[in-house]
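Task card 7
Instruction: Convert sequence to structure tokens.
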Amino acid sequence: MAPRSFWKGYLKLSLVTCPVSMMPATTENEKVRFHTLNARTGHRVVSRYVDAVTGKPVAPEDEVKGYARGEDDYILLEDDEIEAVGLESTRTIDIDMFVPSDSIEWIWYDRPHYLTPADNMGEEAFSVIRDAMAATRMVGISRLVLYRRERAVMLEPRGKGIILWTLRYGDEVRDEADYFAGIGKAKPDAAAMKLVTRLIGERSKDWTPEMVHDPVQENLLALIANRKKGRKQKKAAGAKVQETSGNVVNIMDALKKSLAAEGKGKAR
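Output:
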């Protein structure tokens, strides 16, 4: 059963409008979470804001946002002042432009969400917008207030629904040239390329979500289950860290040994 939507509003393209529902496409609800306790009393520890100078607690009504313009010098802003500069895009996804689906690089993608028609009446309009984007291989760009901030969003048709991606702001993405410019232009050895290509072929598999399972999560759940039963967890044998020497490795020898190991592993 699909979880209840966390956002409801309207999808709009020119004069075409339909009610839609949205849910985050990812979740961390299954992640093991811990509370911080007082080891002596067993009581939970709570956090609160305190004045950095006096050390006294600050009442919620006395809290205010401040933008630092110098050391111990702040411009104070009220919540209603901050909200006033935002656009009124809280309940309508108004698609104002389209771009080719392959023109936005993955690094701009932030959070994925599932967008669906909210009722049967709006399903036809929703389907027309979705299928037209798929047919033209275009994605829609709009703006929307989510998570208390206005964000650029991308709408991508996917099967019967639409994936809505929040996009990162321009100042959040660093220029790759600042990091890759220093990499040399040396061309790889043709023989080494052939062996690496073969090694990639040996290790190629079809994607499955099992490839990204979390063994630490499983170990934590086992630890908690044992504690419930009053048993102590045996210390897990950690993965051995392979020590590497500082000597220069002969790439061809390393590749040949890797391929030989791959062959033995498959034979077993």
